[in-house]
Amino acid sequence: MLPLLSGLAAVAQPDARLLILGSMPGAKSLQQQQYYAHPRNAFWPIMASILNFDPTLSYPGRLQALMAKQVALWDVIGYCQRQGSLDSAISAEQPNDFTRFMQQHNKITAIAFNGGKAWQSFRRQVIGKQHLPDGLQLLQLPSTSPAHASLRFADKLQHWQKLAPLLPGN
Length: 170
Prior knowledge:
The chain is an alpha/beta fold. It has helices at residues 27-32, 43-51, 59-68, 98-104, 116-125, 153-160; strands spanning 4-6, 18-22, 71-75, 77-81, 91-95, 110-114, 137-141. It has a single domain (4-166), classed as Uracil-DNA glycosylase-like domain (Uracil-DNA Glycosylase, subunit E), CATH 3.40.470. It is 29% helix and 19% strand. The relative contact order is 0.21. Residues 9-164 form the Uracil-DNA glycosylase-like domain.
């Protein structure tokens, strides 16, 4: 039987306006207790480009850069079973509590999904089953994972630039 994995805690300030959701952290991220810890994951270089911060900042520094721009970070799946890191290997998934999260972070107006699995899990496990605010903008973006190699970094960055108008000062 596969082990039950528990995701990471949300990274969010009460003034967050944008929530970025992955599916479930990969093995490296769970091991290091850091979002997007795999060195070839494009998430941090993409966010550094969009938010104009140094991608080589320490992990706490990168989180601070997100929160300073009112960006929250979490995952759709709170618990699951999985061997390895691939989204396709996820089973027995249980979603995080978005009803409570959105009540505590009631300024969020948009959710961006990092990849197809995050979007599919949210649609299947959350929409219509948990309370979400009306008018919430939902954006599906290509995965920043190195496993999603069909898009080059520049192409992923171009898609992720859709977040820029949702951020303060833009």
